[in-house]
Design goal:
Elements: E1 4-14, E2 23-39, E3 44-50, H1 64-75, E4 82-88, H2 99-114, H3 121-136, H4 144-149, E5 152-158, E6 161-166, E7 173-179, H5 185-190, H6 198-217, H7 220-226, H8 233-236, H9 243-252, E8 259-260, E9 267-271, H10 274-290, E10 295-301, E11 308-309
Parallel strand pairs: 3-4
Antiparallel strand pairs: 1-2, 1-11, 2-4, 2-5, 5-6, 7-9, 7-10, 8-9
Length: about 300
């Protein structure tokens, strides 16, 4: 059994416009890295965190990585195991790209590997959800499931947890732009209405069904016209500068869709090819710069593999 390991886990796009809390997919970049070492002690420690500008707690009970590792060790009956952790944030915090999820998943994948892979990656999802609950107050799976499993996933049910892997067009590109503005997940969730009109719910159900059908059929046109959100986007979009103008610009450049990643402020588009994705991020970033807002871009196909061990 290995004593040390280094793991990368990817960023994710959750909700996918119309699938609030039930749809998500993994991307190649950005992502987070965790170094983990087994010790002769009997506690879990965070030794170092880099790339977070001092924003994340090193208290093992409060950090999503260490807390999830503690849940895991308790579950397998190995609370006697000592673990030292170094977390390297390679992606922005509060980006809407599953920052806490990537860290948590990297940690769980690492400890499971060190323990001899006692659990499957599907069985690790509830432990990762515990980390999400610590990070934002609600243990949803639309970030952690694709980060752990890779690809595109549907959370059909939370009670009981039922996660379904979905097919998708392999040549579908995702163009992501992260504007440098602060949109805390807890605050973004607080904006969501607790009641919706039946006609809006019917529209949303149709779009979710259309998106899932488009993924199975690998019909990019159907995917694009199904990615409309009449429930969540109208309120969350006010947190993102000139959101609807950004969408116009993305579609003008050939994007098949445009929406908010997770709770924002990152926005994303599906594109038919890499050149279109480059054109989309260039247009969106140019407009954000005109609004005096700096931004970062990420372009990739959907990440089919999820976390991986680094040399």
């Amino acid at each position: 059994m290995s004593e040390s390991i280094k793991v990368f886990a990817p960023a994710t796009v959750a909700n996918v416009v119309c699938g609030f809390d039930v749809l998500g997919f993994a991307v190649d970049a950005p992502g987070d890295e965790v170094e983990m070492h087994l010790t002769d002690r009997t506690d879990v420690r965070i030794l170092e965190i880099t790339g977070d500008d001092g924003r994340l707690p090193k208290d093992a009970a409060k950090n999503t990585v260490s807390a999830s590792v503690q849940y895991y060790l308790k579950h397998i009956g190995r609370e006697d195991v000592g673990v030292d952790i170094k977390l390297h944030k390679k992606m922005p915090i509060g980006s809407g790209l599953g920052s806490s999820s990537a860290s948590t998943v990297a940690g769980l994948f690492a400890i499971n590997a060190l323990m001899g892979n006692l659990l499957t990656q599907d069985e690790l999802v509830p432990f990762a959800m515990k980390g999400e609950e610590l990070a934002c107050g609600y243990g949803h799976a639309d970030n952690v499931a694709p980060a752990l499993l890779g690809g595109f996933v549907l959370v059909r049910s939370y009670e009981p947890l039922d996660i379904i892997r979905l097919p998708y067009p392999e040549d579908l590109y995702c163009a992501i732009v992260f504007p440098e503005i602060d949109v805390p997940t807890r605050d973004a969730r607080a904006l969501i209405r607790s009641k919706v009109l039946l006609k809006d719910a019917v529209t949303q159900w149709g779009n979710v069904a259309g998106l899932v059908s488009g993924l199975f059929m690998k019909d990019i046109d159907l995917i694009g016209r199904s990615m409309q959100d009449v429930l969540i986007e109208p309120v969350r979009s006010i947190l993102i500068p000139d959101f609807y103008r950004l969408r116009e610009l993305a579609l003008e450049q050939g994007a098949v869709s445009f929406g908010i990643s997770g709770s924002g402020p990152s926005v994303f588009s599906f594109c038919r090819d890499e050149q279109t994705a480059n054109n989309v991020v260039a247009a969106v970033r140019k407009h954000l710069l005109w609004l005096d807002t700096e931004s970062h871009q990420y372009i990739s196909t959907i990440n089919a593999n999820g976390p991986k061990i680094l040399d």
